[in-house]
Design goal:
By secondary structure, the protein is mostly helical. Helix content is about 80%, strand content about 0%. It starts with 13 loop residues before the first helix and ends in a 7-residue tail after the last helix.
Length: about 400
């Protein structure tokens, strides 16, 4: 049983939204840059491609500590946990900057992954608690825009810098400095914790509710299902359509723009259309794009157009899912968002193992076909949960 908080948190200000969102930019940049950085890492530390790819696995595995961060946020306050997460990030970025051996760089990325896993649910909970549900799509949509913005103003300039100086040190030193600045700026936002606030719902109590498991099944199946395509995408474009590295690089610029449009669409439309409707129809439209994608042939402009539409739709559906889930268990919001992060991470781990196997068996048609089936099962789970808001 839980008690209500006796004093309502103050309404979210534009300044607070900006500071919480910008606080995520440095860690998101470090999270995203590892993908294009892998070839450089293999040369810098003289390791194989599979060993370098362990950095991605370490980042993903860090999502399993999210419930600890969510529990701490519910108990001690989201602002404190966000600042603590940025502290971990700064340590990780400094460690990466000083790394002379690959195991040191891996350790730095463990800290960066932990920082991201802790900051995300705390930030989502902080913004959700201070925003009426009717307006939450706009607010969390702006928060999630930092994912796309990080690729444009973070990853691209740092990759250029790394290429020019032929070193990782200065890039991660810059990220560490940004993390310190972000942490000090977060001291300016209010905590708004009530002295009469009861202990939050425990994770064990939440996990005994079947409706919670259905929400987590949605995250595991729908996010993980679509990740099947993400993993095989480059192989399909390179081996199936003959794309070279320059073409792939240009395509990922298009993808970044599409992601920004998708999250911007949530800001503009999700509250008016309804978060539940946005998620359901968004993922259905995404599934349709996956099927079209497998049948469009080899004309590059057609493939590019379909991929662009896919990324706009998938980003819209994913971003709209966060405000929807934020209202499922309001008195344990940070913990619930953290559990969702674990479910998403688990789904992505399964996808990373199975996607390459499926591609070898039946190419992109099989990969996308399985992705559609799995993600639709996830939508069924979402609609069957009694905790899912009706709008």
């Amino acid at each position: 049983m839980t008690a209500e908080t006796h004093s309502e948190p103050a309404a979210l200000t534009t300044r607070d939204l900006f500071l919480v969102t910008s606080g995520r930019l440095a860690s998101t940049t470090a999270f995203r840059i590892v993908y294009p950085l892998l070839p450089f890492v293999t040369l810098q530390f003289n390791v194989g491609a599979l060993e370098a790819a362990s950095l991605i696995a370490l980042q993903t595995a860090a999502s399993f500590v999210s419930p600890i961060g969510g529990r701490m946020a519910d108990k001690y306050g989201e602002r404190r946990v966000m600042i603590g997460g940025l502290g971990l990030f700064v340590l990780g970025a400094i460690w990466c900057s000083l790394a002379t051996q690959f195991w040191m760089f891996q350790l730095g990325y463990v800290l960066i992954g932990l920082a991201t896993a802790i900051y995300m649910p705390s930030g989502q909970s902080y913004l959700s608690a201070r925003t009426p549900y009717e307006k939450r799509g706009r607010v969390l949509g702006i928060f999630e825009m930092s994912w796309a913005v990080a690729a444009i103003i973070g990853v691209a300039p740092l990759m250029y810098l790394i290429d020019q100086v032929d070193s990782l040190r200065i890039a991660y030193a810059i990220l560490a400095c940004l993390g310190v600045v972000n942490a000090f700026l977060l001291l300016r936002i209010p905590e708004h914790r009530s002295e009469h606030r009861a202990a939050p719902i425990s994770t064990n109590t939440l996990m005994r509710r079947p409706a919670v498991w259905l929400i987590l099944a949605f995250a595991f199946l729908t996010f993980g299902g679509n990740d099947l395509f993400f993993v095989s995408q480059s192989m399909w474009l390179k081996t199936g359509l003959g794309a070279d590295e320059t073409t792939l690089g240009g395509l990922f610029v298009i993808i970044g723009i599409a992601e920004l449009l998708g999250s911007s669409a949530v800001v503009a439309f999700a509250d008016r259309l309804g978060k539940r409707r946005s998620v359901v129809y968004g993922f259905i439209a995404t599934a349709a794009m996956l099927l079209v994608m497998a049948l469009v042939g080899t004309q590059w402009w057609v493939v590019s157009a379909v991929i662009f539409c896919f990324y706009v739709l998938i980003e819209y559906a994913i971003v709209a899912a966060f405000p929807l889930v934020s209202e499922t268990v309001p008195h344990a919001r940070a913990t619930m968002m953290a559990l969702m992060s674990v479910a998403v991470g688990t789904g992505r781990i399964f996808s990373s193992f199975s996607s390459v196997y499926l591609y070898g068996l039946g190419g992109i048609l099989l990969v996308n076909g399985v992705a559609v089936v799995v993600s639709m099962l996830g939508l069924i789970a979402l609609t069957r949960s009694a905790l899912t808001p009706k709008r």
